[in-house]
Amino acid sequence: MPLPQLMPLLLAAAIAPCPALVKAQLDGLYRWHVAGQDLRGPIELKSQQSRFTDGLYQKLRRAYGLDPASGRFVDFDLFSGTQVSTFGAKVLGCAALPGGGLEARVAVQAGLRNRPMEAPQQLRYQLVSGPAGTWKIADIVYAHPAGFRLTSYLAELLAPQP
User: Fold this and answer.
1) How many CA atoms lie within 13 A of 126 on its CB side?
2) pLDDT per position as a tens digit, 43-99
3) How would CATH label the architecture of 17-158?
4) How far apart are CA 86 and CA 55, in angstroms?
5) CA distance 5 to 12
6) How big is the CA angle at 44 (ends 38 and 49), to the nearest 5 degrees?
């Protein structure tokens, strides 16, 4: 079998169930996110601080604090990779990353109110180990456009303007 055809099989074989603490971290994030979507006002991220690395949390906090009147603001749902509502998510499995981290594959169900899209959005959460066996979200890789990363988006959004 040619290598391009073999790659998806190799990637699928490397996915295993996620550790319970990773699954709990991501499940908790989506419970908070789904519950807070209908609230008016700015996104209250403080309660989720422990889920993220310090650097990613600070960038998220700054990005959500931007004033849309300036023309700079978070213009999509960071936890679904869409511009519609999130209904829930399922952790599909994990794969080891070089350096000891994990990549959790997550299927996010999103869509317009009361009408989820048929195909879930596929996100890859990159996590690093924290104190006492915990896991912290360091980045999110989106399927569309291929390889688009949350950290790259935030760096561009928060870059000083000329």
Assistant:
1) 16
2) 789 999 999 999 999 999 999 999 888 889 999 999 999 989 899 999 999 999 998
3) Roll (3.10)
4) 25
5) 12
6) 130
Mapped onto helix, strand or coil, the DSSP state of residue 52 is strand
pLDDT > 90? residue 151? yes
Map tokens 């709990």 to a residue: 24
Q: Where are the domains of the chain?
A: 17-158
Average pLDDT of every residue of the chain = 88
Cβ-contact 124, 102 below 8 angstroms: no
pTM exceeds 0.70: yes
Residue 68: helix, strand or coil by DSSP? helix
pLDDT digits (tens, 9 = 90+) for 83-110: 898 999 999 999 999 989 999 999 999 9
Residue/partner pairs of 128-133 with CB below 8 Å, 24 or more apart:
128/53, 128/100, 128/101, 129/100, 129/101, 133/21
